[in-house]
Amino acid sequence: MPQPYKRSRSLRRLNIKVSGKSVLHYKERKPGNAKCGNCGIVLKGVSRKRSVKMQKTPITGKRPERPYSNLCSRCMRYVIIDKARLQ
Amino acid sequence: MTIEIGRLVVKTAGRDAGLKAVIIDILDGNYVLIDGETRRRKCNILHIEPLKDAIKIKKNASHEDVKKEFEKLRLKIRETKPKQKTERPRKKRKTSEQLRQQKEEKKKLRDIFRKKEEKVQKTAEKEARREETLEDKAGLGEGKKE
Questions:
Q1: In degrees rounded to 5, what are phi and psi of residue B103?
Q2: Over B101-132, what HEC string results?
Q3: Around Cβ B7, how many Cβ atoms within 10 Å?
Q4: In this complex, which of B15, B18, B52 lies closest to A80 when CB atoms are compared?
Q5: In this structure, are residues B18 and B49 in contact, taking their beta carbons and an 8 Å threshold?
Q6: What ipTM, to 2 d.p.?
Q7: Residue B49 in 3-state DSSP?
Q8: Complete DSSP assignment for chain A
Q9: Mean predicted lDDT score pLDDT of chain A
Q10: pLDDT tens, B100-140?
């Protein structure tokens, strides 16, 4: 088994033309879509970047500003309403 | 729980979600004015959840009155500082005296650079002459050998 960092098949392969010849370029794959922890719907406003680019993006660009950013807005609303009614 | 002035609510949408506020004014059938932990703002009734508690407060009460009431309940209040006006940086026209001074400075700089250029040219000419003489000498030397 090759060591994980020596693998090239797990990377994204791109055929790029360089001076008339097609050359294989390898690129890291993007992470999958972020999903709601409750209902599983794809979250909007959560950026899908590679880890290096994610470091450079500001915190507000990574996720929504509201609380429970791991949930969709509908599920978050249910959680807050439940808590308010229990008080 | 009805929506009325003085009713404590929790905001359920947007960046202020989960924060407590009090209804200050009812604007129409759909909208109310709220203040407290959230920003003082107009808000849709569908985006708030009324709580059991209520405060005695006047209609359209000021932010300070709301602050006093919230301090009694040991709740934090959001303080927003109003933006202070700053003067726009504007270009000022130069006076005739300033323009004259600017021209004189430019002239001085030009003279300094001209002198430097002349010096450089003279040195280059001298070097060219030396090289010529050296080449001649070399040519003579070669000629003698031949």
A1: -65, -45
A2: HHHHHHHHHHHHHHHHHHHHHHHHHHHHHHHH
A3: 21
A4: B18
A5: no
A6: 0.75
A7: strand
A8: ---GGG-STTSEEEEEEETTEEEEEEEPPPPPPPB-TTT-PBPSS-----HHHHHHS-HHHHS-SSS-TTS-HHHHHHHHHHHHHH-
A9: 91
A10: 999 999 999 999 999 888 889 999 998 888 887 777 777 76
Structural tokens at position B69: 């009431």
DSSP H/E element including B50: strand B48-54
A76 inside 8 A of chain B by CB = yes
Kindly state the tokens that stand for B48: 């708030």
How many CB atoms within 10 Å of residue B112? Answer: 10
pLDDT tens for A38-56 read: 999 999 999 999 888 999 9
Cβ-nearest to A80 among B15, B49, B52: B49
**Which structural domain range is residue A53 located in?**
4-86
Q: Is the pTM of this model over 0.80?
A: no
Query: What is the longest distance spanned by two Cα atoms in chain A?
Result: 70
d(CA B126, CA A49): 65
Q: How far is CA A41 from the centre of its chain?
A: 14
Work out how many domains chain A is built from and give that number: 1
Tokens coding B136: 């001649």
Tokens of A1: 């088994």
Mutate to test the interface with B, among A80, A82, A83 (most CBs of B within 10 A): A80
